[in-house]
Structure to design on (623 residues):
């Protein structure tokens, strides 16, 4: 019989563990209950894959169905996340059609693939996973709606914040929708659209008064191009730049050292500056305490909160009303698994605008403008199994929608549905006003709507089960007859199985000799198998004396690294493979990744592909 604590953990009711059934339960008892729940979660996850078993042959792995069934038996609450599978089947069906496993970026998607291809269901209900979406046709493929275009502004950040400027209704509506999604009030913060994350960081660095506030403290366990750009700009203005360090092997932030950087001695005016803080690592999934922002603010630092590593709805856990960072950055992309382009948002607390200087830098701020797309008078949706035919006349005439099947779900193009409204009834012929672009009144961010529909609890529970299952599964892969030297195929960096970890996993693959396989090679081979992964470079790793020997074998430098002339040191770290899970990730995605990584157990596979990669000497490996 399951203990009540294990049952609550399995059902994902972490909050229940924090609540006492007796009103007089003390604080320490609650903490003990939480710790017990977390331990039982770890034990249950470890036993969800054939307890105490290891896998040494990629041809003898359990089936996807078998392992998925075991996971659901261990955690029945997973079945309550089926809504995510239903949304994926209807709105992101391209992932199933293309068999694409998308694990290479994290963040907030604005729209759905269903919208992009010109399909849209009038019915507000979501089709079940067994309901097949309308088959793509040549015409639908041509309706690759860009949703919006961007134009660059030649204006400094402080000028834009103080005086604003003329903006389209689309931009105004998008601003309103994003601030609602982020739980940010326009009375507290002003928002600026930027071309990308690097632009947002550089704009802030160029405007921040490092001449008087001389210090910049960053908190990243990996090399971040956007942050590096900020560092270059800050140093150019005379800033002293330091980074938090991360203790090997769990890569948690070294609290003693970071506290020493942030805590200001009385009357030490030169210690103030900008503290850049993400809530979790985008590469390892390590989470950091909110309290670092509080400590920084209490000691006179301005705080930049980087929310780019947070998934959908995670801003709801932040409590901006409590911490209220001076600056906040978050990225948005258009369509999950299809279009990684998008924009970044830079939020500045209204009371902190006066801190910024007027900068000569005017690159990076953008405007969103409607994307025009005239109708094709010959456009129609048709196929041998068509459920509906849309006859479009020219852009000055009305359009008719005609049903040709018995009981189809009404399907319209994106342009029609935006004009029509999703609550309409089209059982008979209806007339639609012609449209040539997506205007502000028609803005519908279905990607954000899906996150709202799923909610924070469902999304976080689903990802928690999946990411921990992946870590457990990767840890079970071992080379046959490897002895005590590098017996495991995979090494995980950062947190292992944990109730409270982020949705990212960093790892490397080792051959039977114990030599690390180049992460870039693994990424290229994964791409050949239609699996999208990322590579990253872990840095700022701190080793205690007990890990000195391990430090010598683990640390590496990037190829072409230039020695720092001032310190005479190279920037050392660890190159890794990283995967990120999102709200549309499913179990089959992770099983396919796991079975692909298991192929490296075959020494012939490794040697053959490594030779081929070197022989071709190119950035991609052709099939």
């Amino acid at each position: 019989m399951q203990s009540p604590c294990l049952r609550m953990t399995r059902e994902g009711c972490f909050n229940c563990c924090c609540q006492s059934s007796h009103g007089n339960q003390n604080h320490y008892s609650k903490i003990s209950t939480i710790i017990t729940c977390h331990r039982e979660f770890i034990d249950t996850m470890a036993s969800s894959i054939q307890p105490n078993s290891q896998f040494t042959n990629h041809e003898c792995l359990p089936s996807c169905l078998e392992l998925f069934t075991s996971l659901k038996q261990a955690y029945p609450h997973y079945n309550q996340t089926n809504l995510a599978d239903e949304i994926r089947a209807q709105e992101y069906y391209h992932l199933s059609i293309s068999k694409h496993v998308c694990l290479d970026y994290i963040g907030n998607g604005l729209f759905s693939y269903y919208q992009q291809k010109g399909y849209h269901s009038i019915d507000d209900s979501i089709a079940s996973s067994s309901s097949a979406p309308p088959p793509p046709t040549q015409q639908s493929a041509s309706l690759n709606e860009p949703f919006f275009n961007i134009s660059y502004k030649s204006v400094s950040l402080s000028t834009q914040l103080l005086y604003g400027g003329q903006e389209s209704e689309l931009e105004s509506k998008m601003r309103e929708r994003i601030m609602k999604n982020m739980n940010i009030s326009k009375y507290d913060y002003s928002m600026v659209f930027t071309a990308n994350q690097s632009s947002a960081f550089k704009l802030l660095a160029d405007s921040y008064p490092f001449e008087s506030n001389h210090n910049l403290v960053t908190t990243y366990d990996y090399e971040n191009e956007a942050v590096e750009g900020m560092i270059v700009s800050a140093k150019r203005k005379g800033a002293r730049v330091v980074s938090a360090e991360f203790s090997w092997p769990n890569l948690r932030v070294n609290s003693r050292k970071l506290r020493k950087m942030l805590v200001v001695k009385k009357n030490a005016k030169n210690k103030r500056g900008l503290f850049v803080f993400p809530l979790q690592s985008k590469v390892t999934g390590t989470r950091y305490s909110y309290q670092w922002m509080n400590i920084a603010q209490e000691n006179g630092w301005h705080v930049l909160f980087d929310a780019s590593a947070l998934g959908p709805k995670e801003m709801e856990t932040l409590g901006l009303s409590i911490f209220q960072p001076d600056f906040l950055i978050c990225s948005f992309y258009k369509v999950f698994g299809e279009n990684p382009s998008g924009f970044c948002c830079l939020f500045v607390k209204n009371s902190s605008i006066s801190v910024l200087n007027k900068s000569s830098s005017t690159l990076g701020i953008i405007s969103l403008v409607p994307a025009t797309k005239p109708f094709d008078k010959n456009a129609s949706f048709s196929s041998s199994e068509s459920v509906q035919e849309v006859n479009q006349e020219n852009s000055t005439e009305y359009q008719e929608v005609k049903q040709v099947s018995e009981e189809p779900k009404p399907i319209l193009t994106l342009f029609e549905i935006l004009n029509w409204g999703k609550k309409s009834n089209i059982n008979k012929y209806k007339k639609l006003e012609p449209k040539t672009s997506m205007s502000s009144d028609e803005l519908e961010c279905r990607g954000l709507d899906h996150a709202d529909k799923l909610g924070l609890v469902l999304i976080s529970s689903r990802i928690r089960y999946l990411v921990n299952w992946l870590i457990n599964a990767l840890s079970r892969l071992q080379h046959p007859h490897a002895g005590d030297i590098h017996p495991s195929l995979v090494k995980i960096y950062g947190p292992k199985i944990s109730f409270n970890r982020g949705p990212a996993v960093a790892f490397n693959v080792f051959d039977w000799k114990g030599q690390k396989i180049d992460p870039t090679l693994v990424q290229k081979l994964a791409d050949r198998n239609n699996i999208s992964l990322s590579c990253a470079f872990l840095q700022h790793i701190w080793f205690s004396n007990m890990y000195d020997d391990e430090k010598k074998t683990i640390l590496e430098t990037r190829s072409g690294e230039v020695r720092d002339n001032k310190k005479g040191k190279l920037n050392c770290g660890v190159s890794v493979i990283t995967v990120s899970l999102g709200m549309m990730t499913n179990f089959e995605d992770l099983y396919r990744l796991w079975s692909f990584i298991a192929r490296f157990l075959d020494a012939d596979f490794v040697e053959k592909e490594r030779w081929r990669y070197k022989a071709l000497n190119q950035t991609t490996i052709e099939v």
